[in-house]
Specification:
Helix content is about 30%, strand content about 30%. It is built from seven helices and nine strands. The protein has helices at about 5-15, 25-30, 65-70, 90-100, 110-120, 160-165, 215; strands at about 50-55, 60, 80-85, 100-105, 125-130, 145-150, 165-175, 180-190, 190-200. The strands form two sheets. It has a seven-stranded mixed sheet. It has a two-stranded antiparallel ribbon with strand order 1-2. The radius of gyration is 16 Å and the shape is globular.
Length: about 220
């Protein structure tokens, strides 16, 4: 398959018509090889307009949603980013293309190890991955210019607010376990401003300041 052409088509037909206009974001989505981050049996669907399973009951987001979240972070090349939910590592790679350093926290060890290996193979040296509770953030390297959360939260976890720099931006899905609103959180003079982008569906954010395993599993 001509994955390069499929990437170009994804950008032209899925991203640009829906308002993804940041040239740097479009370039990153044109460059990062999404097919390298999905299971081999699903590679034919890599650039389709829907999320894909990556195992462990987790998903790689629909390309448009990943691009929408990225664009609204308003990334700068010298930014230090905290990502909650490494997953396959695809979004991590996009962030690494657009910033100075990405610190990513993944709850599931097998996914973290696969993502770490893949990112290293692809030459990303500006990424660190931690296996842990994403709702606690990664205090060691805080504060962060930008925070991206790729799982649905009950509410914005307090540790993430505390680890966000003054004038920083966080993009996070907030709401129910299986249906949320994608929110932009901005920190100004220690006050939090929140705007809603659109409705979305992410897997639940599990952790001390998120959903419990019992709540998710019934």
């Amino acid at each position: 398959m001509n994955y390069r052409r499929l990437r170009e088509k994804m950008v032209e037909e899925q991203l640009v018509p829906r308002g993804i206009k940041d040239g740097k974001v479009l370039l990153a989505f044109s460059k990062v090889e999404r097919e390298k981050f999905v299971p081999s049996g699903l590679q034919r669907s890599t650039y389709n307009d829907f999320p894909l399973s990556i195992g462990e009951e987790q998903t790689i987001s629909q390309p448009y949603i990943a691009a929408l979240m990225t664009q609204n972070l308003k990334l700068r090349k010298d930014d230090k980013i905290l990502e909650i939910g490494t997953g396959s590592g695809y979004q991590t790679a996009i962030l690494a293309e657009l910033s100075k350093m990405v610190y990513s926290v993944e709850r599931i060890k097998t996914l973290a190890e696969k993502a770490k290996k893949k990112l290293k193979e692809l030459g990303y040296t500006n990424v660190k991955i931690l296996v842990g509770d994403g709702t606690m953030g990664w205090e060691e390297f805080s504060p962060y210019d930008r925070i991206l959360v790729t799982a649905g939260a009950k509410r914005v976890p307090l540790p993430l607010i505390n680890q966000l720099k003054e004038e920083g931006i966080m993009v996070i899905p907030v709401g129910g376990a299986y249906s949320q609103q994608l929110k932009i959180i901005q920190k100004e003079k220690n006050k939090i401003k929140s705007d809603i982008l659109e409705r979305c569906i992410f897997v639940p954010l599990i952790g001390k300041y998120g959903w419990s395993e019992d709540e998710v599993n019934g």
